[in-house]
Amino acid sequence: MSSFEPEQNVGLARLTTIGTGGPARWFARPRTSAELQAALHWAEERQVAVEVIGLGSNVLVHDDGVEALVLRLEGELAAVEIVGSTLSAGGGATNAVCLHRARDADLGGFEFASAIPGTVGGGTRMNAGAYGRDWSDVLIDATVVAADGSRTVGVDGLGLSYRHSNLRPGEVVAHARFALESRPAGEVKAHVAELLAQRKATQPTNRRTFGSVFKNPAHELGAGRMLDDCGLKGYVIGGARISPVHANFIENAGGASSADAIALMAEARSRVHERFGVVLEHEVRFLGPLELPVL
Ligand SMILES: Cc1cc2nc3c(=O)[nH]c(=O)nc-3n(C[C@H](O)[C@H](O)[C@H](O)COP(=O)(O)OP(=O)(O)OC[C@H]3O[C@@H](n4cnc5c(N)ncnc54)[C@H](O)[C@@H]3O)c2cc1C
Question: Which of 27, 116, 120, 166 has most ligand 1 atoms within 8 Å of CB, for mutation?
């Protein structure tokens, strides 16, 4: 049907913010809906799993790589348009570009995403959020494409809740629309500056990390506080280190592997379980056959 031919054995470490992990067995950068469809059909015909990577800011890739077709959306699938007070964006559009376009159009409501270094698709998959707001507060709908067709779904259809959506492997967020509100560009800019300053004061913003390691559990203490109470700040395994600034971040302190990060996560989880009786759930998404030991 098409001449789609993916690249092979493409390194993924440089496409992640933590900078670890091996190659994708197959890799492609679809730029249009037609190219995306062709990639999905190619994978379906060969029974190959499909994974999507946005800015790689919440993923940990297995050191031996990923036996899948990994897609990164670009071109039309990363474009941003403002229509009235609606921001309409491809799944590969970065939050930063969305925010700038909204600000330039005197639209606010997306400022909370200023410190989230991801894409529209990654944010939808994760229901990303900060400062008391998340994707579900602004998303109108998302167009989700899979090998068997596409559907446009709203917040309920996506099942968005705390860092969760019901999107399954192989389902690609190709496009999303957000409802914003009229706000002067100067106000948006000032709000963003305030949020970024808050972030800088509490998190390791100048290090290679994948954001929060664990979700906050249903407990009076957050994951970061629990990990801190277990004495984990600054704890090192191989080239990976628990941030001395915020214990729910793992830094690539130089030459880290994904195995180092997993070993740190396992140790951290085990200590929290021992001390608080809580089983922490990881927020970071695994690409490839990574897993944490059962507690
Ligand atoms: C310094 C730092 C700070 C962070 N702060 C926050 C924060 O405050 N709040 C927060 O929620 N997160 C935060 N994160 C985590 C991360 O930025 C978010 O989860 C972000 O939404 C991930 O987007 P991404 O495009 O990088 O997705 P990736 O990390 O590339 O992927 C994450 C998941 O989404 C899937 N995915 C990506 N694109 C698509 C698509 N188009 N269709 C379907 N699935 C897709 C991937 O397969 C994977 O399962 C932070 C990360 C860092 C490094």
Answer: 116
User: Is there a catalytic annotation at residue 163?
Assistant: yes
Bridge partner list, 240: 237, 252
Q: Please name which of 121, 153, 116 lies closest in space to residue 133, comparing C-alpha atoms.
A: 116
The helix (run of H) or strand (run of E) holding residue 82 is strand 80-83
CA–CA dist 40, 29 (Å, integer)? 12
Residue by residue, what is the 3-state secondary structure of 4-62?
A: CCCEEEEECHHHCCCCCCCEEEEEECCCCHHHHHHHHHHHHHCCCCEEECCCCCCEEEC
- What pLDDT was estimated at residue 2? 61
Nearest atom in ligand 1 to the alpha carbon of residue 94 is 25
Indicate the pTM of the whole model: 0.97
Instruction: Decide: 91 and 124 in contact? Cβ < 8 Å.
Output: yes
User: Strand pairing of 59-61 and 86-90?
Assistant: unpaired
Residues of the chain with pLDDT under 50: none
Which of 114, 212, 243, 257 does the annotation list as catalytic?
212
Sign of CA dihedral 91, 93, 96, 99: negative
The pLDDT assigned to 291 comes to: 96
Give CA–CA dist 134/123, Å, rounded: 9
Instruction: Tell me how far apart the alpha carbons of residues 18 and 256 are, in angstroms, rounded to a whole number.
Output: 9
Q: CA dist 274 to 77, 229, 265, Å?
A: 46, 12, 14
Buried b (16+ CB within 10 A) or exposed e, 187-200: ebeebbeebeeeee
Atom of ligand 1 nearest to the CA of 91: 41
Per DSSP, the residues of 204-239 read -TTS---S-SBPPPSSSS-HHHHHHHTT-TT-EETT
pLDDT in tens, 251-271: 999 999 999 999 999 999 999
